[in-house]
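Researcher: Here's a chain I'd like modeled. Treat it as a single chain, no partners, no ligands.
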Amino acid sequence: MSEQQLKAKLMDAPAMQRALSRMAHEILEQLDPPETIVLVGIKRRGVPLAQRLAALIERFEGVRVPVGELDITLYRDDLTTLYDQPQLKGASLPVDINGKLVVLVDDVLFTGRTIRAALEAILDYGRPKTVELLVLVDRGHRELPIHGDYVGRKINTARSEKVNVLMEERDGRDEVVLESA
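Model: Modeled as a single isolated chain. Structure tokens:
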């Protein structure tokens, strides 16, 4: 990190846990019955978020909702500008999603392009009854008409800033950090 770059902690581990707990309750209030819900995490950090949400829903309702993993690499509209040789991370949906209440889970909602790609990818697996979006952080600057149905925290950012979600499962700690140049 250069001396000019500043970091601000937006969420610590307890704040992340509170947000996930609140969103798990919101999902249960909106989508009923819980047996019809499928959580689908967008790789990379959406997957552990979806797994944590499933554990919370099981704790609250006694129902284990399935968790899938979605790799959107080949669905990105900027694929040719980002990768010479795209690295596929695999996708796994443990149940048939036809007629299910699918909740896409991602860490940060920014332009909406990742979610557009995820919607395209999910439809290759079937036709869910509904698809809703859960994000830990909504930072604005949408380029597409996409919004989060369940949002942990909404923040205003400059386009030049970066929001980093760190997770215990991948990074050894839970926190959300805003980095500015």
